[in-house]
Amino acid sequence: MGALDGRIALVTGASRGIGRAIAERLARDGALVAVHYAANTEAAEKTVSGIVEAGGRAFPVQAEMGGPGDVDTLFTRLRSALAEHAGRVEVDILVNNAGEQTAAGLPPEEITPDRFDRMFAVNVKAPLFTTRRALEMMPDGGRIIGISSGLTRFAVPEQLLYSMTKGALEQIALHYARHLAPRGITVNNVAPGITDNGSPVFSVPEAVEQMSQLSAFGRVGRPEEIAGVVAFLAGPDGGWTTGAFIDARGAPGLGWGPHRGAGRGPAAPAPTRPPPPTEGLTMADRPVHLVVITASVREGRFGPTVARWFLERLRADPGLTADPVDLLDVDLPDRLPATDMRDRPPEADATAARLAAADGFVVVTPEYNHSFPASLKHFIDWFMAEWQAKPVGLVSYGGLSGGLRAVEALRTVFAEVHAVTVRETVSFHQARERFGADGRPLEPDGCEQAAKLLLDQLTWWALALREAKEHRPYRA
Ligand code: NAP
């Protein structure tokens, strides 16, 4: 017999990520679960079929939140589905999980009234009125759980708007808890830290490594771990906890990086390569994370050979981590959005998140017609805040000029996006003749020395700017 046998739960945003894990967990504990989602029918059906195959009970409910009539649509559909699946039209457990996030960050200067209204409509207004409507159907002893965020306890200027919505969401629990205590209904918040919701950034080892340093466990959270906290609050043992903020952030306050020895907490999945040593390091000292961009997309290009050599050199330094971005693999639309880069499509968001996670950049570029390739210019133009107040190192290759005219042209372009190019460069004249069949330089001394100087300068700038931005966020 499960702790939630006979209970009916509505989990908003349950098609993917944390919401899906919550739906699966509540169903495993015996609840009949309404799997709410906005548009991703395939994902919602997958959540439902997974629950059913595991012996649980669930059904999907679609309703896009944040627009006129959103809550009415949700409850009309929920009521008719409950009449079909449950035999009683009631909700015992409500989990307000659906939310919009600004994964790539939104600097305070770029918060517009429209973005404010949209984010508050989805993250605050929808859960408030969903709560009100659910309460009309909730017997005494019910449970309401809001999924907030660790960002209400941690200053990240690029998450101001999102964090404001979560701060407002938390008020629902605080005040309703007192209001509903006489009915034995509990209302609480669970605040996850960075949790792997399956979005593309979680498949970039270097980005995950960096995010992992925010937790004392030295890794990012798993959706099931958030679901476990929700299950406790939803179950009979949660009846004496109300109006609470439950910290499920993976303990960032205990310091950066994993401990040694016993009591390390839940095991981390094995990293793809050993993470750089982080124990005892401050935010300012953690490894410098560099995105290394291979700029050429021309058939028969030589760029990957140069980039591979440089990455090998970079990764030999334990103070550095690298995320290689090959422009051949980046699929950005030809047309740029009008002016507001924040309105970019989802395919650009994943790349933006990788660039935003970087402390600096290295561009490996050839020279075409006295400049750098158009593919690189298009890529640079797609982003803005992601480049700002960060250093850029330039590695070039070409014929007689060694790509140096591309380097000089790039200096002015990067200055325009508020990035600083470092003085030292690595350049390969007659590049194809300078590498052996094993992809390594035939005369390594000179280029190794140049790469070291470039990386030393990049590291200095990256650390100096990181420290500076912590005290004084960059304003364009
Ligand atoms: P996710 O993977 O992006 O999934 C979002 C879910 O919400 C999906 O089911 C989506 O439905 C639904 N949704 C999004 N916008 C909606 C709208 N306008 N109307 C209705 N449904 C909508 O999210 P997640 O990362 O698991 O996050 C879940 C919750 O945890 C969010 O409230 C988030 O703020 C919070 N959180 C997440 C993290 C984290 O690191 N992941 C950390 C702290 C807090 P479709 O599939 O149909 O689009």
Care to describe what's here?
There is one protein chain. The chain has helices at 17-28, 41-53, 70-85, 113-136, 160-180, 205-212, 223-234, 303-315, 346-356, 374-381, 404-416, 431-434, 444-471; strands at 8-11, 32-37, 57-62, 93-96, 143-147, 186-192, 245-248, 288-294, 320-326, 360-366, 391-397, 420-428. It has 476 residues and is an alpha/beta fold. The protein has 2 domains: 8-254, NAD(P)-binding Rossmann-like Domain (Rossmann fold); 287-471, Rossmann fold, CATH 3.40.50.360. Helix 1 (17-28) runs parallel beside helix 2 (41-53) and helix 1 crosses helix 7. 45% of the residues are buried. NADP nicotinamide-adenine-dinucleotide phosphate binds next to helix 1. NADP nicotinamide-adenine-dinucleotide phosphate (NAP) binds next to helix 1.
